[in-house]
């Protein structure tokens, strides 16, 4: 039997992938993060599936449930919000399953930063303005940042920064990024991206912290900072340029943005 780590997407139930929904529908046991995963997704599980909310469980308890279900002969869905590849705490679960000899598969999902960009109606990489996106967070008491990954250091790149788990620290984010981006740099906060209660705040580094405070946003949000958020005057991409030699290509050239 197999454990499936499934990315449930950023919040809207219909943003789970087809593969994720199919895996979910075939699993006799589903462990889900009750505080983050939309309840509507649980309707995809078999009617007799065992549903386990992990919101108040620790790593040992979660691992025990995964191993138990495997030993009972069940395929298991481990439903995570967003995409398992970033800020999902999946790495330590996979490490434990490796030690227990339990097979698993990872099913990607729509990440929160992609849903935030969609809400803003912005491409995060813009020709001649910015071609780099950094996904990061801020240091907290529970989990410190590794050396060299503080905002002051990352900010020197000038890249578009997407900060997860940082809304309650908006003032600190602004203070650390102002010397590198300047007060007029576009900034935005998207809370509850893709959900009915989605909230979009736009501004600059000079006022975004005030907007966050006034809106009362403290969780389930991403902060975006960078020039591409406000870019209007920029050259067209070479991808679809009329001057591009397309001999022998399929029209896309293998570009990831097709």
Automatic annotation (TrEMBL):
What the entry lists under InterPro entries is as follows: 4pyrrol_Mease, 4pyrrol_Methylase_sf, 4pyrrole_Mease_sub1, 4pyrrole_Mease_sub2, Cbl_synth_CobM/CibF, Siro_Cobalamin_biosynth, Uropor_MeTrfase_CS
Q: Enumerate the GO terms in the molecular function aspect.
A: precorrin-4 C11-methyltransferase activity
Keywords, ordered alphabetically: Cobalamin biosynthesis, Methyltransferase, S-adenosyl-L-methionine, Transferase
**Which pathway does UniProt place it in?**
Cofactor biosynthesis; adenosylcobalamin biosynthesis
CDD domains the record matches = Precorrin-4_C11-MT (cd11641)
Q: What is its EC number?
A: 2.1.1.133
Give the main EC class: transferase
Q: Which SUPFAM superfamilies match?
A: Tetrapyrrole methylase (SSF53790)
Query: Which superkingdom is the protein from?
Result: Bacteria
Biological process per Gene Ontology, one example term: cobalamin biosynthetic process
- Tetrapyrrole methylase domain location is 2-208
Q: What family does the Swiss-Prot or TrEMBL record give for this protein?
A: Belongs to the precorrin methyltransferase family.
State the PANTHER family in the record: COBALT-PRECORRIN-4 C(11)-METHYLTRANSFERASE, SIROHEME SYNTHASE-RELATED
NCBIfam families of this UniProt entry?
cobM_cbiF
- Protein name, UniProt field: Precorrin-4 C(11)-methyltransferase
- In its UniProt entry, the species of origin is given as Streptomyces corynorhini
The organism's taxonomy opens as: Bacteria, Bacillati, Actinomycetota, Actinomycetes, Kitasatosporales
């Amino acid at each position: 039997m197999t454990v499936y780590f499934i990315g449930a997407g950023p919040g809207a139930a219909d943003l789970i992938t087809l593969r994720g929904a199919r895996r979910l529908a075939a699993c006799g046991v589903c462990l889900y993060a009750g505080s983050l995963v939309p309840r509507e997704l649980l309707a995809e599980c078999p009617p007799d599936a065992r549903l386990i909310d992990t919101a108040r469980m620790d790593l040992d308890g979660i691992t025990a449930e995964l191993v138990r279900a495997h030993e009972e002969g069940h395929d298991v869905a481990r439903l995570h919000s967003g995409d398992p590849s970033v800020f999902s705490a999946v790495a330590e679960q996979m490490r434990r399953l490796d030690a227990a000899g339990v097979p698993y598969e990872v099913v990607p999902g729509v990440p929160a930063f992609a849903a935030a960009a969609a809400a803003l109606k912005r491409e995060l990489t813009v020709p001649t303005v910015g071609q780099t996106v950094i996904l990061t967070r801020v240091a907290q008491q529970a989990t410190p940042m590794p050396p060299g990954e503080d905002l002051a250091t990352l900010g020197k790149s000038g890249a578009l920064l997407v900060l997860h788990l940082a809304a309650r620290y908006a003032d600190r984010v602004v203070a650390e990024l102002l010397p590198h981006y300047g007060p007029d740099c576009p900034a935005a906060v998207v809370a509850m991206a893709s959900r009915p209660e989605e909230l979009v705040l736009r501004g600059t580094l000079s006022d975004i912290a005030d907007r966050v405070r006034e809106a009362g946003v403290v969780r389930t949000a991403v902060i975006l900072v960078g020039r591409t958020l406000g870019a209007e005057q920029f050259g067209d991409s070479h991808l679809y340029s009329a001057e591009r030699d397309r001999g022998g290509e399929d029209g896309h050239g293998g570009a990831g943005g097709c």
